[in-house]
Amino acid sequence: MMSSEFFGNWFLPGIWITVQVTLLSAALAFVIAFPIGVLRTNRLWIVRFLAGAYFEIFRSTSSLVFMFWIAFTVPPVFNISFQPMFAGVLALGITYGAYASEIVRGALAAVPPAQREAGIALNFTPTQRLRRIELPQAWPEMIPPFNNLLIELLKGTSLVSLIAVGDMTFAGDLLRLVKNESAPIYTLLLALYFVFAFVLTRGMRLLERHAKKRVGQAPAQTGLFGGMRAKSSIDAVAGTGAAK
User: Fold this and answer.
1) How many whole angstroms separate alpha carbon 69 and alpha carbon 48?
2) Which of 51, 140, 164, 234 has the fewest beta carbons under 10 Å from its own?
3) CA angle at residue 13 from 92 to 206, to 5 degrees?
4) 8-238 topology per CATH
5) Between the CA of residue 189 and those of 89, 128, 180, 202, what are the distances in Å?
6) pTM for the whole thing?
7) For residues 140 and 180, what is the distance between their CA atoms, to the nearest angstrom?
């Protein structure tokens, strides 16, 4: 089905590009999510409004259309140029960062009020309460919905093939055109996405266990498919689905 030359020149680099887009987009989303999520809990209404506006705008727009806008509208309008992969990472990171910010907000909102009151009693500043009390307790609750969102992001990386980024979906489609075979190629792609998602899930489960141990919570015992779990309270508050 696949010659060694095609695999070495196209498919293997395509797999590496998919990994890069996933990791870079996730890093950007993570950097965006925490400040936006925290600002959405601020006492000042103008701060909450601006952070909420970011969330609503990028939650309500298509990541694919936004990707097209960055790739094909921004360069001629602002007279700049960049690689298509940059446009893909930027669009995915900004869009999924908006969804992740709701997870952060929901997790912080789920911290018992008595914990905040204890911080006030200890004369902690708002920043100290956030860093020493709220975030350590909210972080373990963020990880399961973050895991779900990370899997959605991984699957969403296939959109970059539509702006000529040579990820593994792009390489698989090229092979389909050359070989005129669909079933084996797309079956292989499905299997690869599943393997990557499964590895990410197991890694996030290990991170969740470590985070819960640090705050004295008993980690849930899970089997091989431990990532397939019931929704947590933060799932219910924040939601994790991301429409393309």
Assistant:
1) 27
2) 164
3) 60
4) MetI-like fold (1.10.3720)
5) 21, 47, 16, 20
6) 0.83
7) 47
